[in-house]
Design goal:
about 25% strand; five-stranded antiparallel beta sheet; alpha+beta; about 30% helix; single chain
């Protein structure tokens, strides 16, 4: 049986970003490149791996799961 944290990590980052009006600048097989939701940028530097459901912000050298993304976007802790 999956824990609630494991269930949360299964939520699609791509879908979450789309629900917040954030769409990829470019899409490739298995991943998308976005403009970072954390700052204004002209060149997209935010990658979402659709298969692993992980994100990476190359501009800030941060990344993680959907949980990390939501905490950073909402500026809150896990608790």
């Amino acid at each position: 049986m999956k824990t609630s944290i494991e269930n949360l990590k299964q939520k699609s980052i791509k879908r979450y970003l789309a629900e917040n009006g954030i769409y990829p600048a470019r899409e490739y097989s298995g991943y998308g490149i976005y403009k970072s939701p954390f700052r204004n940028e002209r060149k997209a530097s935010f990658k979402v791996d659709y298969h692993k459901n992980l994100w990476r912000d190359f501009g800030s050298d941060e990344g993680g799961s959907i949980i990390d993304l939501v905490m950073k976007m909402k500026q809150c802790s896990f608790i």
